[in-house]
């Protein structure tokens, strides 16, 4: 078995704000193997994007502070790297597509300027000026933008939201990264465009053989895009499994709640939902952060944080009720 491309161990991140300290990430653990597509799913505000920004070391500090944890990329701890080594990882090693393509593109530079800058700064090979231009046009063609030469000379304001996100995908893949982080890349787009963008992304990562972390709050999207799925709740990974196993046999009470909240054609779904709300990170619940919302919670859950434990194969769960056998694998 090859070494994981990315391995996060026990990652803790907090933010110092006026009211106090927000303890956002609480021991995140996650692995991405070479060539794998990993889905990361959870409610808005659960720490998905914070985790990804921490991998790329782009969280502003202050107010953020990584208090514990290690992030191995190709078996080297990113947190121990020097600034120029981290710069090498960004782009050549890992690139990211952000939620909002309008915010991700600079309105005062042409698409061509922005795309060629990314290629020039991050390409593995030393390309000539002409080579960089050709690579940029090829990247725009790959994302199926009509008339790439015209787009190259244009500005973000001249493009629709879907076209801007295609440009961002072109930018993220133009340097042929080993790992692509796609952070809810369709959230800000019209529903009619979302499916096109997801299909395009799927085709391109197949062609390039890129590993992917796909962040979403939609179980439907993760079902389409991922081989393996992690479920995140309030700054913790609570369950991880192969996609088919997670959907056929979810074990963590939060994962089960998420599944039951999906609207069904026969009715129900949203109304069943999960009672309560995501905790306040200024004063998060002790022990298992899900205990105020969990029907299986005991005193043990309030006192101790459950560790992510392998149940079978690659299926891991962080829950005392599963360990006690109160929630069984089918
Ligand atoms: Fe519920 Fe306890 Fe499991 Fe947390 S550890 S999900 S509170 S049973």
Descriptors for this entry?
eight-stranded mixed beta sheet, globular, 35% helix, alpha/beta, 13 helices, binds iron/sulfur cluster, 330 residues, four-stranded antiparallel beta sheet
How would you describe this structure to a colleague?
With 330 residues, the chain is α/β, with parallel strands linked by helices. The chain has a domain at 255-330. The chain is 35% helix and 23% strand. The protein has 13 helices and 12 strands. It has helices spanning 48-55, 83-93, 101-104, 111-122, 129-142, 148-153, 161-174, 191-208, 219-225, 243-248, 253-260, 299-303, 320-323, and strands at residues 6-17, 20-32, 37-41, 64-73, 76-77, 94-97, 179-183, 211-216, 228-233, 236-242, 309-312, 315-317. Strands 6-7-8-3-9-10-12-11 form an 8-stranded mixed sheet, sandwiched between helices. A 4-stranded antiparallel sheet has the order 2-1-4-5, with helices on one face. The longest helix has 18 residues, at 191-208. The chain is globular and about 65 Å long. Iron/sulfur cluster is lined by residues 253, 288, 290-291, 294, 296-297, 301, 306, 319-321.
Distance, first to last CA: 28 Å
Count of runs of 4 or more consecutive helical residues: 13
* Overall body shape: globular
Low-confidence stretches: none
Rg is 21 Å
Structural class determined from secondary elements:
alpha/beta
Query: Could you describe the largest sheet, including whether it forms a barrel?
Result: 8 strands, mixed
Helix content: 25-40%
Q: Round the mean pLDDT to the nearest integer and report it.
A: 86
Total beta-strand segments = 12
């Amino acid at each position: 078995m090859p070494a994981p491309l990315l391995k996060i161990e026990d990652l803790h991140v907090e933010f110092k704000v006026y009211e106090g300290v927000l303890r956002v990430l609480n021991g995140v653990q996650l692995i991405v193997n070479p060539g794998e597509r990993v889905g990361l799913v959870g409610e808005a505000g659960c720490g998905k994007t914070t985790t990804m920004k921490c991998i790329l070391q782009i969280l502003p500090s202050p107010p953020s502070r990584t208090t514990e944890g290690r992030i191995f990329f190709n078996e080297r701890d990113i947190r121990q790297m020097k600034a120029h080594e981290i710069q090498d990882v960004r782009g050549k090693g890992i690139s990211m597509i952000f939620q909002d393509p309008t915010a991700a593109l600079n309105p005062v530079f042409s698409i061509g300027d922005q795309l060629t800058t990314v290629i020039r700064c991050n390409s593995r090979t030393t390309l000539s000026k002409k080579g960089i231009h050709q690579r940029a046009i090829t990247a725009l063609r790959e994302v199926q933008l009509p008339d790439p030469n015209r787009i190259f000379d244009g500005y973000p304001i001249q493009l629709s939201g879907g076209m801007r996100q295609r440009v961002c995908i072109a930018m993220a893949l133009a340097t042929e990264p080993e790992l692509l982080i796609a952070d809810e890349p369709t959230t800000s787009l019209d529903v009619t465009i979302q499916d096109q963008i997801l299909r395009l992304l799927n085709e391109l990562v197949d062609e390039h053989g890129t590993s992917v972390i796909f962040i979403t709050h939609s179980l439907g999207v993760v079902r389409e895009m991922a081989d393996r799925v992690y479920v995140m709740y309030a700054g913790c990974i609570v369950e991880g499994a192969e996609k088919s196993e997670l959907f056929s046999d979810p074990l963590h009470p939060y994962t089960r709640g998420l599944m039951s909240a999906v609207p069904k054609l026969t009715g129900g779904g949203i109304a069943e939902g999960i009672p309560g709300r995501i905790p306040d990170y200024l004063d998060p619940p002790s022990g298992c952060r899900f205990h105020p919302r969990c029907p299986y919670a005991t005193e043990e859950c309030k006192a101790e944080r459950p560790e992510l434990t392998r149940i079978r194969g690659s299926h891991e769960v962080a829950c005392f009720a599963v360990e006690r056998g109160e929630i069984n694998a089918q």
